[in-house]
Specification:
247 residues, mainly alpha, 3-stranded antiparallel β-sheet
Length: 247
């Protein structure tokens, strides 16, 4: 009993030392305060967070100190890319990772990391010049939106994303299109963070090579679940699987 108590006490001490060390690291880094930030938070710490995310290329909104939807998605994308738990909550671990990322950032660093990890550009077939990270988040979106659809239907969803990037009506980046508020159900319900399968990845690669089964569509919807009357007014191109694709 005595030995067990000693082991428990030692374990508690180690945990406390770990927490203290992390706090010390954050203090030495000149990072945020120890306040946990999440959706709805406001103040100077949120402005610091937005500034770091913007510097790293994850946030394009105003540095206004308001932890809203755009900041939440930027945090989740950062956590996903750096292999962390994707919960949108900025605690000590995420803050420390943000500081290290900011400290080591340099132009082109994202591409260098992708290439070092085995990623590569697709050459002339990838006219969008997408990075490995762009392709990964596209695969996430295709998987979250259409994993129950036939392969052609998954390619079609990837093609719609690329068609939106080309269209002046939408953001001109993959991340901007995917995380545009209200654009994709998978982002709204969190399925964007599910791990995609090989089929979704192949669908993205095929779309990047120029195959577009939608005929240039920039919208799609499932007629069995659609709640917007407006979407029915769009010119319909074709139906693939359960989705109707339109312009």
């Amino acid at each position: 009993m005595h030995k067990r108590l000693v082991w428990i006490t030692a374990a508690i001490i180690l945990v406390l030392l770990g927490v203290m060390q992390m706090k010390a690291s954050l203090h030495d880094a000149g990072a945020f305060s120890h306040t946990t930030l999440k959706y709805g938070s406001t103040g100077a710490d949120v402005r610091e967070l937005q500034g770091r995310l913007q510097h790293l290329g994850y946030y394009r909104g105003d540095i206004d100190g308001d932890f809203g939807y755009a900041t939440l998605q930027a945090v989740k994308t950062f956590q996903w890319k750096f292999g962390m738990k994707v919960d949108g909550i900025v605690g000590a671990k995420t803050k420390l990772k943000l500081w290290k990322a900011t400290k080591n950032w340099r132009p082109g660093a994202d591409m260098a990391r992708a290439q070092a990890a085995g990623g590569r550009m697709l050459g002339n077939s990838n006219s969008f010049g997408l990075s490995a990270n762009d392709m990964r988040i596209m695969a996430n979106a295709v998987y979250g939106e259409s994993r129950g659809e036939p392969f052609l239907g998954q390619v079609a969803v990837a093609a719609v994303i690329l068609n939106r990037v080309k269209s002046p009506k939408f953001p001109n980046t993959v991340h901007g299109v995917i995380f545009q508020p209200g654009a994709f159900t998978a982002v709204s319900d969190g399925q964007i963070w599910l791990t995609p399968n090989e089929t979704s990845r192949r669908a993205v690669e095929l779309a990047l090579r120029g195959f577009d089964p939608t005929g240039g569509s920039i919208y799609y919807f499932n007629p069995a679940t659609a709640t917007s009357g407006w979407i029915w007014s769009r010119p319909q191109v074709k139906k693939i699987g359960k989705h109707i694709f339109c312009k």
